Amino acid sequence: MHPPREPARGRPGGTVTLDPTATLGGRLPATLRDQFPYLAQELNGHPLAYLDSAATAQRPTAVLDAERAYLERSNAAVHRGASTLVGTSTGAFEEARATVAAFVGAGDREIVWTENATDAINLVALGMADASAGLGGSEADVFALRPGDEIVVTEAEHHANLIPWQRLAAKTGATLRWIPVGDDGTWGIDDAASVIGDRTRVVAFAHVSNVTGFAAPVADVAEIAHRHGALVVLDACQSVPHRPIDFGALGVDFAAFSAHKMLGPTGIGVLYGREQLLDALPPARTGGSTITTVTMERAEFLPSPHRFEAGTQPVSQAVALGEAVRFLDGLGMGGVHAHEAELAELLVDEVARIPGIRLVGPPPGAPRAALASVDVPGVHAHDVGQFLDAQGIAVRVGHHCAQPLHRRLGLRATTRASAYVYTTADEIRRYGAALAEVRGFFGAGA
């Protein structure tokens, strides 16, 4: 049902002038931080330690300059008209698509620009709802859901990969089921196999949890899902920016990720889909740029990706995202992943040495992404965050758009520290030293 295909080949070049040998063993160039002007500022009288990259990453000068240069010299409506400026703009727009496609092992027609990752997941769910209502013709039957069909998610999902499927189930009469998590907030392949069955039509889950840092066994889950004839939708927001990714090799049918988490701008995300599936999925948003023929009675739509990109496209954002991908390619994603693995180990060690602090997710020594959510007994997460902020350390507090997971763990909120390519070991140690002072400061224990 899902034959393997050759991954897309990357394009040569790139604009990051960094020595790729410097990334070996995770040791990224010492000059890397100099390329991020945001990181040079102080926060509350202290050097900024930005540990909130899982929420949004900072942008290097090369990305800022690329978007500015496009707006100053190349700005025009893409795919509209025949002027030289339109051709230049369209070329930059589509070059960015090809760059992103190569970065994730996809073909150019398998990359759709969206508003963000949330929008990308909704495009799939809404398209399936339309197919279930009879839109899209016989080609869309593969997406149609009926009473008795099942949609499977996990108990750890971000709301963006939960609520669209809740609504799809409500619209179609399908049943929403979920893979349960253990007391540490993680799940395994046996848990998935116990829920996915012959009634399953969709399996949607995160590659990396934004709360626990747990990395799912994607290829294994995809194999089980496909064996039962189900489609696989991957939330790749916390994986594409941080490790080498090839969606074709992973075997997923759809995937979503956001530019702003990978050194790019806000206002643009990416939907990956297998070409034959995208060409059959009814477009959730319609209008200009999506059609081949329109009469007063009906419309016929273009193939992917343009059938999904109605209206004025996020052109400068796409150009900036393309530059962000070239920047990451210049660093080498293997080096990025190795660097973050070292930081993840240090981050967990810093938390584990503090008495009374609860670490959410995999235990010390187990693989995880470079993020850690913690509970400080007796101190609300918001107070923890403000205490750290006063010392120049920026983190994320709250339920991280994952209320069901927090509820399962008996928590209302956690404090999350997350690292990226520009994070240093010294910043992690500063975080650990400050976190160790929290309970004493608030009189909640030694």
TrEMBL record:
Catalysis performed (reactions): (sulfur carrier)-H + L-cysteine = (sulfur carrier)-SH + L-alanine
MF (Gene Ontology): cysteine desulfurase activity; pyridoxal phosphate binding
EC nos: 2.8.1.7
Keywords (A to Z) from UniProt: Pyridoxal phosphate, Transferase
Record bears the keyword rRNA-binding: no
Any single GO BP term: cysteine metabolic process
Region (Disordered): 1-22
Gene3D superfamilies (UniProt xref): Aspartate Aminotransferase, domain 1, Type I PLP-dependent aspartate aminotransferase-like (Major domain)
EC supergroup of this enzyme: transferase
Residue span, Aminotransferase class V domain: 50-430
InterPro entries in the cross-refs: Aminotrans_V_dom (IPR000192), Aminotrans_V_PyrdxlP_BS (IPR020578), Cys_dSase_SufS (IPR010970), PyrdxlP-dep_Trfase (IPR015424), PyrdxlP-dep_Trfase_major (IPR015421), PyrdxlP-dep_Trfase_small (IPR015422)
Cofactor or coenzyme needed: pyridoxal 5'-phosphate
Function noted in UniProt: Catalyzes the removal of elemental sulfur and selenium atoms from L-cysteine, L-cystine, L-selenocysteine, and L-selenocystine to produce L-alanine.
Homology family: Belongs to the class-V pyridoxal-phosphate-dependent aminotransferase family. Csd subfamily.
UniProt-listed PANTHER family: CYSTEINE DESULFURASE, CYSTEINE DESULFURASE 1, CHLOROPLASTIC
Protein name (database record): Cysteine desulfurase
